Amino acid sequence: MKEYIRVNQACYDDLAEEYGDRADNKSSSEESESNLCKFILNTVTLPDDALVLEIGPGAGKILQCFSDLGFYTMGVELSAKMASLAHKSSPKSPIIIGDILKIDFVESQFDIIYLGALIHLFPQEDAMLLMRKVSHWLKPTGRVFVNTTCNDKNQEGFYEKKDYHGQCRRFRRRWTESCFNDFVIASGFLVLDTMYTDEHDRGKRWVAYVCKKA
Questions:
Q1: DSSP letter string over 156-195?
Q2: Which residue from 23, 97, 131, 175 has the least number of CB within 10 angstroms?
Q3: pLDDT exceeds 90 at position 164
Q4: How far apart are CA 68 and CA 50, in angstroms?
């Protein structure tokens, strides 16, 4: 296991309990799960047997939302403790525990692949690798959700996660909005819609894209 992945795994194991508490008590500035799901579903008509994959489901609220809508859902989670949270929120969703870069699925298997607050946990080279794997797994008519925070400059490294009480060190990539857009396009995707969320209580501005394969 690469060092940055090991560090992130330990960090999210440590923060799992607080993640669960925050997921159950969202601030007014956070985007609701229903809005995020609608953001994607407004761009596509899915079959009744649609399959949704979430990479890094965390507390499992997005999986729960898609599952409640009647779709088949599954997740891949690096942290075993986070996976336990996701399973409690969405008990119908199988959760694979492991490094997504070492996991593979069938080509054109998924109707939706959801990467929420995830892609910035990889160095750019591995982030590109992941997006290309996602493209391979996605149906030609499928949709990808990907988001990150907007930053003044591009940089990556190990930083303390200061917006949680249980502060821990993790790997984080920071993109400017224009460079993140270029990254998504270079990964082989076409951006269909964009959503901004100002999470003012944590000093973050998020940009989210719903995409299809170019």
A1: EEEEE-TTSSS--EEEEEEB-HHHHHHHHHHTTEEEEEEE
A2: 97
A3: no
A4: 13
